[in-house]
């Protein structure tokens, strides 16, 4: 289970929010639920780049939520950012998120210290150093 945060619209009628919204989602296999989008979305979605959540009738990302985090509260680990979904909010359309680990590696908070595993080809405390071949 992951949490999604956002300041996006509450529904498809452009109702704005004045408090940060949070919902719980279950990530799923992109091959099963997220290969329903037409170009420019890649089809099939590369699993190493994207995470996917099934759509729900009453909750999900909406306009304005893009770029918001999805994270695992138990591990204190941000997994990705909201990327895209359907054109209508809350209509059972899957939601797609960009994996952080694909771009900058994986960091865990352990006893107040970040331990990072950088993506292939990168090193440094923030995975900012590109290794030459």
TrEMBL record:
UniProt keyword annotation of Disulfide bond present: yes
Gene Ontology biological process: proteolysis
Keywords (A to Z) from UniProt: Disulfide bond, EGF-like domain
Segments forming domain EGF-like: 85-128
Gene Ontology terms for molecular function: serine-type endopeptidase activity
Covalent S-S links between cysteines: 118-127
PROSITE patterns: EGF_1, EGF_2, EGF_3, TRYPSIN_SER
InterPro entries documented for this protein: CLIP_Serine_Protease, EGF, Peptidase_S1_PA, Peptidase_S1_PA_chymotrypsin, Trypsin_dom, TRYPSIN_SER
Pfam families in UniProt: Trypsin (PF00089)
Stored PANTHER family: GH08193P-RELATED, PTHR24260
Gene3D superfamilies: Laminin, Trypsin-like serine proteases
Protein name (database record): EGF-like domain-containing protein
